[in-house]
């Protein structure tokens, strides 16, 4: 199999990795601008614009609001908070403002950490390839755009292992386009691909992903990290309260005036969410901080809290939606999830999906790239993400009452896709804890 990365300027690299040949070739265009990166394998990515600085983008959010995006850092040390805020924007035009779309790429440090996790034997090569591939990706959200003049419910989102504040834009943007303010936390427990703090001179000091030390058991490391993650998620909610009161200083230089957020955050029913390690973080956070009234856990990785399952899970009394992908679940993970309060928890599995279907990865690379990244799924990735997001929105609409009534528009689509879903815990082609809940249960 050959995966061609086309870079303007002529062939500069050709290398075999396993049975795959990586070739850099010339892309002839009429533009004299800087290098462009394109995957030659077929994909459903849509070009933002040939005249744009971006070559491709993550899925366009489908809600009634254009999405705005900004980064907020409160405090300069590791006890502070770094998060990406997705919110309904005042602007009504998304496609006409492509030059203001948010870059997905966060910097070389992030791709280096991601490469260390995905390809530890050849991190330099994969880091270079990731950099080329990701620099041209846009998030269809307007950077530093003014916020819509209305009050919106809030979501705290926790990322997975080796991820960051950018990689769940497909989920976070969809929620924001449907009237939510989403705070995507970037964890400083060394489980992120990278993150940073600031020194006294205001310079960024990066912390890269920490591989498992050879003399340490994985559970010990992950259990330590999830405790940090829970504390950071709780602090993120504290920051949202302070933002609502106009008491926050952003350590980052942006064009977004935080005063816009004063009295615009509806904090009566905060939502805690996350994916994988972040899904486990969401569950642990719901148990610890009852200010969070609703939970959404995507493919929760229960291993980091396995010794606390029997006491932690039954204590979660908030409504909780767990959306699983078919390929991810192991028997031990399913058994741990079965300890959750079945009176308040809805379990749904999306058939034909893999773990990476709940983040941006399938939309960043072509078919061969998805194979390398573990993101190749039998179900089309756009369909998988659409089902995932509509399940979330419909669940939140049910539990938010009047605040979510305008969101309750997804039942027809979910009914049409019902053959792609199984209600209950579902692994290895069978239901472990299943029932025919119907969509009224979500």
From TrEMBL:
Q: Which UniProt keywords apply?
A: Hydrolase, Lipid degradation, Lipid metabolism
What the entry lists under InterPro entries is as follows: AB_hydrolase_fold, PAF_acetylhydro_eukaryote
Which sites are catalytic? 276, 299, 355
Does Hydrolase count among this protein's keywords? yes
- A single Pfam family it belongs to is PAF-AH_p_II
Any GO MF annotation of the entry: 1-alkyl-2-acetylglycerophosphocholine esterase activity
A GO BP annotation: lipid catabolic process
Q: EC number(s) for this protein?
A: 3.1.1.47
User: What is catalyzed by this enzyme?
Assistant: a 1-O-alkyl-2-acetyl-sn-glycero-3-phosphocholine + H2O = a 1-O-alkyl-sn-glycero-3-phosphocholine + acetate + H(+)
Q: Does the keyword rRNA-binding apply?
A: no
Q: What class of enzyme is it?
A: hydrolase
Q: What is the recorded name of this protein? A: 1-alkyl-2-acetylglycerophosphocholine esterase
Q: Which organism is it from?
A: Petrolisthes manimaculis
């Amino acid at each position: 199999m050959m995966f061609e990365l086309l870079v303007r300027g002529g062939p500069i690299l050709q290398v075999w990795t396993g049975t795959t040949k990586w070739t850099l070739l010339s892309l002839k265009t009429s533009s004299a601008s800087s290098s462009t990166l394109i995957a030659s394998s077929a994909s459903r990515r849509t070009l933002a614009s040939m005249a744009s600085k971006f070559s491709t983008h993550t899925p366009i959010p489908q809600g009634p609001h254009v999405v705005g995006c900004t980064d907020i850092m409160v405090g300069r040390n590791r006890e502070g908070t770094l998060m990406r805020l997705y919110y309904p924007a005042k602007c009504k035009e998304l496609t006409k403002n492509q030059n203001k779309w948010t870059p997905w790429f966060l910097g070389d440090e992030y791709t280096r950490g991601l490469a260390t996790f995905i390809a530890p034997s050849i991190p330099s090569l994969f880091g270079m390839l990731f950099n080329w591939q990701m620099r041209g990706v846009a998030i269809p959200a307007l950077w530093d755009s003014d916020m819509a003049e209305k009050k919106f419910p809030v979501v705290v989102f926790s990322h997975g292992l080796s991820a960051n504040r950018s990689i769940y834009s497909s989920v976070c943007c969809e929620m924001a386009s449907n009237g939510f303010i989403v705070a995507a936390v970037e964890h400083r427990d060394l489980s992120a691909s990278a993150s940073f703090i600031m020194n006294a001179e205001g310079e960024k000091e990066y912390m890269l992903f920490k591989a498992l030390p050879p003399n340490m058991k994985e559970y010990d490391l992950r259990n330590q990290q999830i405790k940090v993650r829970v504390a950071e998620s709780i602090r993120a909610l504290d920051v949202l309260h302070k933002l609502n009161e106009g008491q926050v200083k952003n350590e980052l230089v942006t064009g977004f005036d935080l005063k816009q957020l004063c009295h615009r955050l509806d904090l009566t029913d905060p939502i805690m969410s996350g994916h994988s390690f972040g899904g486990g973080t969401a569950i642990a956070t719901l148990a610890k901080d009852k200010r969070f009234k609703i939970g959404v856990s995507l493919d929760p990785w229960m291993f980091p809290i396995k010794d606390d399952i029997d006491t932690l899970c039954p204590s979660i009394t908030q409504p909780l939606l767990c959306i699983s992908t078919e390929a991810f679940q192991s028997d031990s993970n399913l058994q741990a999830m079965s300890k959750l309060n079945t009176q308040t928890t809805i379990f749904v599995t999306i058939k034909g999906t893999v773990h990476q279907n709940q983040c941006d990865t399938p939309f960043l690379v072509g078919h061969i790239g998805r194979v390398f990244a573990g993101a190749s799924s039998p179900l089309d990735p756009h369909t998988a993400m659409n089902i995932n997001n509509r399940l979330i929105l419909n669940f939140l609409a049910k539990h938010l009452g009047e605040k979510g009534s305008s969101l309750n528009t997804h039942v027809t689509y979910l009914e049409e896709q019902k053959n792609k879903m199984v209600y209950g815990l579902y692994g290895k082609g069978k239901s472990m804890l299943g029932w025919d809940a119907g969509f009224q249960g979500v």
